[in-house]
């Protein structure tokens, strides 16, 4: 298998982080230069079906191009440690939190960076008002998570899961514009530092 990847991009980092948690080392990594537009060539689009990274090319040539679909596929092939839930209830809870953090935290954080960082202008023209709106949205959800994390270590269950990976990679992308979550969200910041301290977190940076 081959993973089409871009260093420092947040969606591929989800996959690389999951691979590190599971100790997956037998997937070839192919770097795609987004700023040079390599993902927009007809060769890449014809192969992958979308101008995005990550994409996982299977040995039979099939390409899967949504980060969470790739993560779920790898979870099936490499079940331990479990990151998506062991039974129906856990799977539903983890899915619920993964979808929430993706929609209300990670996506607005990614848009904040995308509409701010001058180096990303080849992908998106900087728009400070769009960036500010998205940063405020993300911070509103950080407050929700701060309350949730007051008496628990991880977002979805009593162990680290894909929901933590999706949330932490989204917030961490803010580092490109030197973004720091509000200091008074102490539980949220404690959780973020704990995620960052995992040796596996470095796999995606
Ligand atoms: N929902 C997709 C999003 C993929 C995505 O937007 N990837 C970004 C990099 S993090 C990308 O390829 N951007 C290229 C562009 O916007 O032109 C996923 O989770 O894989």
Automatic annotation (TrEMBL):
Q: Which domain of life is it from?
A: Bacteria
Domain GST N-terminal as annotated: residue spans: 1-82
The molecular function terms in GO held by this entry are: transferase activity
Q: Does the keyword Transferase apply?
A: yes
UniProtKB keywords: Transferase
Q: Where is the GST C-terminal domain?
A: 87-205
Q: Which InterPro entries match?
A: Glutathione-S-Trfase_C-like, Glutathione-S-Trfase_C_sf, Glutathione_S-Trfase, Glutathione_S-Trfase_N, GST_C, Gtt2-like_N, Thioredoxin-like_sf
Pfam families, alphabetized? GST_C (PF00043), GST_N_3 (PF13417)
Keyword Transferase tagged? yes
> What name does this protein carry?
Glutathione S-transferase
Instruction: Please spell out the taxonomic lineage of the organism that makes this protein.
Output: Bacteria, Pseudomonadati, Pseudomonadota, Alphaproteobacteria, Caulobacterales
